[in-house]
Amino acid sequence: MSTDFLSLGVRPELNEILKELGARVPTPVQVQSIPLLLSGKDIVVQAQTGTGKTFAFLLPILERVNGKNNNVQALIITPTRELALQITTELKKLAFKVNANVLAAYGGQDVERQIRKLKGSIHIVVGTPGRILDHIRRGTIALAELKMLVLDEADQLLHMGFLPDVEQIIKQTSPKRQTMLFSATMPPSIRNLAKRYMKTPVNIQIESKRVTLEEIRQVVVATTDREKQAALFKILDEFVPYLALIFCRTKRRTKALNKALLEHGYSSDELHGDLSQAKREQVMKRFREAKLQILVATDVAARGLDVEGITHVFNYDIPQDVESYIHRIGRTGRAGEKGLAITLATSSYSTMLHAIEQGIGMSIERETTISSEKYPKTFNKPQEQGNKGNQHRTQRQDSNKNHWKHQAVRGRKPAKEQGRSQFSKPDSSGSQGKAERTGSTQYRSKPSDTQGAKPATEQRRTKASNQSPRGAKAGQEHKKRK
Question: Which domains, and CATH codes, for the chain?
Answer without folding.
Answer: 6-206 (3.40.50.300), 210-398 (3.40.50.300)
